[in-house]
Amino acid sequence: MEIAELEIFRAVALEQSVTRAAQRLGRVQSNVTTRLRQLEESLGVSLFRRDNKRMTLTAEGQRMLDYAARLLALAEEARQAVRSGAPSGHFRLGSMEAAAASRLPGPLARFHAQWPQVTVDIQTGTTQALADAVAASRLDCAIVAHPFDGPQQDADLRELGEGLEGRYLFTEDLMLVTPPGHPEPATAVDLPVRRLAAFPHGCTYRKCALQWLREQGSDPAQWTLLDLTSYDSILACVMAGTAVAVLPQSMIDMRRAPAGAGLMPLRPVHSYLIRRAGFDTAALREFTTVLS
What one-character DSSP code corresponds to residue 239? Predict the structure, then answer.
């Protein structure tokens, strides 16, 4: 099993096509087909189902894809570790949607100005999805929020995934946003609706909101959860009077909270830059510097 074979396998898995994978890799199609067949023969399994020129992963191929991602990430880490101290190659960064919009533009601009040769790949998602991707070597690091409500130095990042570590970055003020025309609720029981608009399961802010409801004596099981994928759609639900939401103050400041919406402080939430324990590259070190 060679690194080149793994790169070809991953490209075909992503493109679901030998032709597109060959174009992506800058190889001739026959070379991709041959190397993929050699990999399957060495493993003794079929990695793809070939239907009408469309390549879809078999169960064995799906398992292999996870290992391939980790092996290729480790190979890239090794290449960077033995080179000079200058960052190079790809830097795979994950971030919550809110942090990507409000916290990252400045640092990323500084990083690119200093190290234009580094290709930064950015992926957004919920805290748990990002933590899983870091633990599985699909991301080098990620900016996530931790539900722990004590001092930031006491949060155990391993709760997000075994083998993770990181450093504290900032604390967000989490706000409850309610529809226009309603008085500020004294407790969760007084809220005008029983729908919560939030990012899908795995979002720390959603988890904090559900915890707050329990603490206020309101059973989350009696609430309807609206799984949305952007803060704009979340705010639209609130302004339509169909849901309440929890948003970090930074996003409210960016969007200038819509006129008439109710705002109530909920709790602070700490955010961290996480990585796999021991993971270290020049790109990560320099990115950490521009975040400071």
Answer: H
Cα distance between residue 127 and residue 95, in whole Å: 8
* Whole-number Å distance between alpha carbons of 131 and 129: 6
Alpha carbons 180 and 185: distance in angstroms, whole number = 12
Report the length, in residues, of the chain: 292
Q: pLDDT-based confidence at 103, cuts 50/70/90?
A: very high
Q: What percent of the chain has pLDDT over 90?
A: 66
What is the arrangement of strands in the sheet containing 262-276, beginning at the earlier edge strand? 119-124, 90-95, 141-146, 262-276, 164-178, 244-248, 195-198, 224-227
- As separate numbers, helices (DSSP H) first and strands (DSSP E) second, the chain gives 11, 10
Residue with tokens 């060679």: 2
Print burial letters for 110-130: b (CB count within 10 Å at least 16), e (below 16).
ebeeebeebeeeeebbbbbbb
> What is the C-alpha separation between 38 and 47, in angstroms, rounded?
11
